[in-house]
Write a structure and sequence with these properties.
This protein has 324 residues and is an alpha/beta fold. It is 32% helix and 24% strand.
Length: 324
């Protein structure tokens, strides 16, 4: 367990676990995750599909499906989000902690205008007039580079990049303390992706908010994040400053991820052999051991603890000292 001063963090997960009940058994989506986000910090969360990234995002917002069982804590402003009642969570959700979903076309109601989306959200949290709410909605839309005359259009009348800007505007209109962005640029081309990332960085500086950025794109993490958490099969493999993770990675999984990134200097493609494990029957010991070229018998038998190898740089590997 990482020992930190909880007063210095906006949000802190402590031994947080999420399992999904299915007909085949329990899927271990997240197991004993411990991490924290400081005020004004951007924390990137990376990993392959199925590593638990989106489950973490939904857990912070309290929107996990009914078949999820939760243990551990997520502390926000001194309160454990996992034990708050629905009414309290609804007051926090959107107002203090906001979420940008992965695919805006499936999250925006096709029967509602963009203005209706804003009015519904603003009036759910604040007792203000319709005119004042409309004014704030227009300001939020304009801040994303969309002309206010488009506010009465429907979602299908916008491009993918503009819909994503609308989702960001909806998330920020109430000026939350924490913004959770779940792969906000997945379906966008590189030009629009760059614009969205620039907007997120600018807004973080303006509003002094914290950002939990969930992505599979390591290039994005290198560009906009302060620290990065690497998840593998529901477990935290490595956590630390972006510079350390990218230039001095410790966990073999992190090293393998980074070696698979393509750059202008790439002459040979690299990939991680094998596939992520079935989370209904996760491997014993280190969950990466079936794919790890350095695995020994201890890796198959014992779960590696999360150890601080450098100041603020943690990794869960029995042979972490080897990679320093």
């Amino acid at each position: 367990m990482i020992q930190t001063n909880t007063d210095s963090f906006l949000l802190k997960a402590h031994d947080f676990t999420v399992h999904y009940k299915t007909r085949r058994g329990e899927a271990h989506a997240l197991d004993e995750i411990s991490l924290e986000i400081a005020q004004g910090e951007t924390l990137g969360v990376v990993g392959e599909t199925g590593s638990g990234k989106s489950t973490l995002a939904k857990a912070v917002l309290g929107v996990l499906p009914p078949n999820a069982t939760v243990s551990g804590q997520i502390i926000y402003h001194g309160s454990d989000l996992t034990h708050l009642n629905d009414d309290t969570l609804r007051r926090i959700r959107g107002k203090e902690i906001a979420l940008i979903f992965q695919d805006p076309m499936t999250r925006l109601n096709p029967l509602m205008t963009i203005e209706d989306h804003f009015l519904e959200e603003i009036q759910a949290h604040e007792s203000i007039s319709v005119e004042e709410a409309r004014s704030r909605a227009r300001e939020a839309l304009v801040s994303m580079g969309i002309h206010e005359s488009r506010i009465r259009n429907y979602p299908h009348e916008f491009s993918g990049g503009m819909r994503q800007r609308i989702m960001i505007a909806l998330a920020l209109v109430l000026k939350p303390f924490l913004l959770v962005a779940d792969e906000p640029t997945t379906s966008l081309d590189v030009i629009v992706e760059s614009q969205i990332l620039e907007i997120l960085q600018d807004l973080r500086r303006v509003y002094k908010m914290s950002l939990l950025l969930i992505t599979h794109n390591l290039g994005i993490v290198a560009e906009v994040c302060d620290r990065v958490a690497v998840l593998y099969a529901g477990k935290l493999a490595e956590l630390g400053p972006v510079r350390d993770i990218f230039h001095r990675p410790i966990h073999p999984y992190t090293r393998a991820l980074l070696s698979s990134v393509i750059s202008l200097e790439t002459k040979e493609l690299h990939s991680i052999e094998g596939s992520p494990p079935d989370l209904l029957i996760p491997p014993s010991g280190c969950r990466f051991h079936p794919r790890c070229p350095y695995a020994q018998s201890i890796c198959k038998e014992n779960v590696p603890p999360l150890v601080e190898y450098r100041p603020g740089h943690f990794a869960a590997c029995h042979f972490g000292d080897t990679f320093l």
